[in-house]
Amino acid sequence: MLILGHSTSAIAPPASLQPVGLPQQARDEAGLQAVGKGPRGAISLRKVSVTFARGRHEYAVRDVSLDVAPGEFVALVGPSGCGKTTLLNVIGGMLQPSSGSASIDGQLVREPTPACNVVFQQHSLFAWMTVLDNVAFGPRALGFVAPEEIARRFLKLVGLDDFADAWPATLSGGMQQRVAIARALATQPGVLLMDEPFGALDAQTRSIMQEEVLRLRVGLQPTVIFVTHDIDEALLLADRIVVMSVNPGTLKAVIDVNAQLDVPGRRLQDQAFIGLRQQLLGLIREESLKVFNQ
Ligand SMILES: Nc1ncnc2c1ncn2[C@@H]1O[C@H](COP(=O)(O)OP(=O)(O)OP(=O)(O)O)[C@@H](O)[C@H]1O
Ligand SMILES: [Mg+2]
């Protein structure tokens, strides 16, 4: 496997990413109480393989090992069918691996738990609930005190407090995704899984949503695994980028973006950015050609 940007083990998070707790200011802003002690959201994948009983290729994902530090933002990229969603499903407990294991904060993942929430590409809101009830759903289900109050605070964080009583269908695609993010964050998961969350949005809205995610991230610091086909998006948002190879889905390269680009203020036109973009495009193209030639 190719490792770019840092010399330590491919599966370990870079040393620069020390575990961080939820900052008090962000907690206060969202009206949260402390949940447990110490940093949350450490993900550990150990030789995860997933096989499906049909198709030409036995393995959807094979022998994937990866450690993600609490608060780290990892983008997962690779050609269609390389197993990105499959891997998210394993981390989220929606799918049991055929072999190997996934754990969050040392707990083996056996089923979906409140430790981890997911934002999908689209159609993930409950159409029959108001925006407020969508966001309050998780806190209510988990028995949090004052779920509506929590929901209002998270809606405020994503700038949609004026739309609490609206129905999801009356919101734009970007607004719906902001509600979906608020809903996913409202139960204070240590881990947020995002599967092409902005894939259905127009370029302008997408760019605004990327800024939004960066802003929320600074405040709330969940661990994020973010799947995208957009290399610039991955380079703008991520601490590390994991490139997957296809058939079988394995880790092809791990790129420590922080070691090569400024953390705040990354710019598409910078030489370092352009260089990394070219590298990434080359790696993904190799894999796409493999699929094309099979
Ligand atoms: N439930 C299933 N049954 C059989 N095969 C499956 C199932 N889910 C996924 N696969 C296969 O596993 C492989 C990985 O699929 P996956 O959806 O994880 O890819 P992906 O990287 O998310 O692709 P995309 O970028 O198109 O979303 C594919 O070959 C797919 O056909
Ligand atoms: Mg997918």
The largest sheet has its strands arranged as 1-11-10-4-9-8-7
Count of DSSP H/I helices: 8
Q: Radius of gyration, Cα only, in angstroms?
A: 19 Å
Amount of helix:
25-40%
Mean pLDDT across every amino acid position = 86
Q: Which word captures the global form?
A: globular
Write the layout of secondary structure elements.
Blueprint (H helix, E strand, L loop, with lengths): L1 E3 L19 H7 L12 E9 L7 E10 L4 E5 L6 H8 L7 E6 L2 E2 L7 E4 L11 H11 L5 H11 L15 H13 L5 E5 L7 H18 L2 E5 L3 H7 L2 E6 L4 E7 L14 H23 L1
Parallel strand pairs: 1-11, 4-9, 4-10, 7-8, 8-9
Antiparallel strand pairs: 2-3, 2-5, 5-6, 10-11
Helix pairs in contact: 3-4, 3-5, 4-5
The structure holds adenosine-5'-triphosphate and magnesium ion (MG).
The site of magnesium ion has 3 residues, from α2.
Please provide a written account of the structure.
With 294 residues, the chain is an alpha/beta fold. It has eight helices and eleven strands. It has helices at 24-30, 84-91, 131-141, 147-157, 173-185, 203-220, 231-237, 271-293, and strands at residues 2-4, 43-51, 59-68, 73-77, 99-104, 107-108, 116-119, 191-195, 223-227, 240-245, 250-256. It has a seven-stranded mixed sheet, with helices on both faces. A four-stranded antiparallel sheet has the order 3-2-5-6, covered by helices on one side. Strand 2 (43-51) and strand 3 form a beta hairpin. The longest helix is centred in the last third of the chain and has 23 residues, at 271-293. The protein is globular and about 50 Å long. Residues 3-11, 13-24 and 33-37 have low confidence and may be disordered. Residues 84-85, 195 line the site of magnesium ion.
